[in-house]
């Protein structure tokens, strides 16, 4: 490329940066102006906050666009020229003529998909390489005017692509906006409606495509998606840290990234699950088991009557009364904890009538005995005919007393308890009888597998979270506000005495059922338990009285403070009727409302704190790992079914994971459009030499899969080294040191069986103290030691796989895990084994690590490791 071309492009790029700087100055100035305003009215505060958020988002996009602002140019047959970049920039003085078009616009699409066979009117495509704000290189694709057959191996922007592929890894995924290929672009721009499944082998760019699709959809449908957000579900926290910079680098911030477990606030997976138990807990039938467990907790008295011994009297609760109350509650369609209000109301009403009739009988009997004892024998057969001596106020007071009575509350808790998801699931696991009743479709052996006793500190349902609720609701009940009699009511309203119809004073039988508290199984929760807790929460519903009580206390405190302010203002002028006082214009309640704090949390913060939040679009990465129960959990977060699902069923390692997209998604598309499926077939990560070894493992898996085609061949044969068991640790440490010497830049990963993670990490750390390991591993470290599951979705320059026999034996899907491990490397692969090498790894060179391995290229290096047919190139044209 000639110097004149670079000079010309530099002038244009510099002008774009001048425009960007001007936009930054104007936006910063506007933000300062907005933040200087102190608004008192709620609507004005909302508008101020919205304006400041808009300015902040614009500044974030400007910052994200700073690096690589302009990366391409299109020259069309008619002389039109378009510059393509990370954001749109327009000329305000020329009717907003586009100076730079955003890569997500339809006008930019030819940059990614034009070929010699389908030029789309493009004469030349130019890739512009910059470093900071300086143009450092140009590469042109000049398309022939003659039509030719398309090539399956044709790549877009080959020099820039191979420079990226050959660069050393940093532990963070970068965006691919400058090197998106045609098959990737088609998926990125696909319609947002419905479920899109992207099946692709290792290194095909599934994750990058999914993230760039999220950015594209946010750009194209911003008004809809910015309010509800986009959810990205990843397989593990290390993966989420690996990808966390991609969307911000594209200027998108309204995205929530989470593992499946993190979608359920408050509970944390504390230990790994046994494979057989993980498979069992992942089955969809567990949803039916939980539903049955909930119904089993809606009980009836064992006999015809239930005796309730209060301090003042003996109450007889008839079974028929409970049958009617339970039917009423169930037929309401409310969830368990809300339906309990109806059950309690009906039972309390029956007990109140019983007590009222008792009062009447006692009073009339006493009067008759006093007037004419012989008349009592005549009166007894007729009874008292429903005679009541209590008026409505008396009955309301009686209902309150019954609700507060410990014996009555204990009976109600036994018949229809308020349950937290944790309590339901933990107590289901802990009681073999409950399991047998709720899960007849499971075998006795499967029920024994599910059985787990309660943790010693989790046997008492009256846990810390429950006591905190009681304190909150009791405090609220003691501080009535205007128009409030102190009852922290339910959604069912109040009866004539002003107390809640269902659970009354809030300090009793309606103790909150919320996520994150209550009993737990011995050993704590596992990742396989979290979808079951979420399912339980859907069946139970949440009792929000604690939150409402806290909100009431906060408001009453604000009103009291506001009243104090008004009193101080009015004190000195209250004797002069000619002076208008503050209290003539506003009362304490309205003054308090004006100063109510706005919710300034981001969408991500609000969404992760709210289990019921629904998203406008959901991306699921490594989706093959999700169990049927996990899919139910994810689908609840996206009722519109606008989803991008990416994965590879050949890499399924979780025993509860899927081997068929059609089967696992069928329950969610039976009444709507079928999922669309796209395939990614080109492997950009794994060199051909390594992929050949991985393909031998792939050939042993079912269902059969076609390996992706690698675009690079580096000439480095993957190797194996046999050592004795005693030698494994020391040899591994020496091998790591040797491989680090060969890596002038980049990262090395040691992938080991889960059962040997601690042992082999210690061996490597003895040689390299800075080694990182486990789910909290810092991926920027030069060496990481990971289990195979923790390496899913990641890539490293050099990979050492240790003890493949143990990897194969640790899981029913051990071969899938080995396939994952072998395909993580971007440059070189070695395998250390203690026994005979598995037959599927025969292709590995038995000579051990090579004496000399060419170093990885630094990130700024340009060039290519191999070539493939593409459009003709002409320098300087």
Automatic annotation (TrEMBL):
<keyword id="KW-0067">ATP-binding</keyword>
<keyword id="KW-0347">Helicase</keyword>
<feature type="region of interest" description="Disordered">
    <location>
        <begin position="841"/>
        <end position="877"/>
    </location>
</feature>
<feature type="binding site">
    <location>
        <begin position="200"/>
        <end position="207"/>
    </location>
    <ligand>
        <name>ATP</name>
    </ligand>
</feature>
<dbReference type="GO" id="GO:0000725">
    <property type="term" value="P:recombinational repair"/>
</dbReference>
<feature type="compositionally biased region" description="Low complexity">
    <location>
        <begin position="863"/>
        <end position="877"/>
    </location>
</feature>
<dbReference type="InterPro" id="IPR027417">
    <property type="entry name" value="P-loop_NTPase"/>
</dbReference>
<feature type="region of interest" description="Disordered">
    <location>
        <begin position="474"/>
        <end position="527"/>
    </location>
</feature>
<dbReference type="GO" id="GO:0003677">
    <property type="term" value="F:DNA binding"/>
</dbReference>
<keyword id="KW-0547">Nucleotide-binding</keyword>
<keyword id="KW-0378">Hydrolase</keyword>
<dbReference type="InterPro" id="IPR027785">
    <property type="entry name" value="UvrD-like_helicase_C"/>
</dbReference>
<feature type="domain" description="UvrD-like helicase ATP-binding">
    <location>
        <begin position="179"/>
        <end position="687"/>
    </location>
</feature>
<dbReference type="GO" id="GO:0005524">
    <property type="term" value="F:ATP binding"/>
</dbReference>
<dbReference type="Pfam" id="PF13538">
    <property type="entry name" value="UvrD_C_2"/>
</dbReference>
<dbReference type="InterPro" id="IPR000212">
    <property type="entry name" value="DNA_helicase_UvrD/REP"/>
</dbReference>
<feature type="compositionally biased region" description="Pro residues">
    <location>
        <begin position="847"/>
        <end position="857"/>
    </location>
</feature>
<dbReference type="InterPro" id="IPR014016">
    <property type="entry name" value="UvrD-like_ATP-bd"/>
</dbReference>
<dbReference type="GO" id="GO:0005829">
    <property type="term" value="C:cytosol"/>
</dbReference>
<dbReference type="GO" id="GO:0016787">
    <property type="term" value="F:hydrolase activity"/>
</dbReference>
<dbReference type="GO" id="GO:0043138">
    <property type="term" value="F:3'-5' DNA helicase activity"/>
</dbReference>
<feature type="compositionally biased region" description="Acidic residues">
    <location>
        <begin position="494"/>
        <end position="510"/>
    </location>
</feature>
<protein>
    <recommendedName>
        <fullName>UvrD-like helicase ATP-binding domain-containing protein</fullName>
    </recommendedName>
</protein>
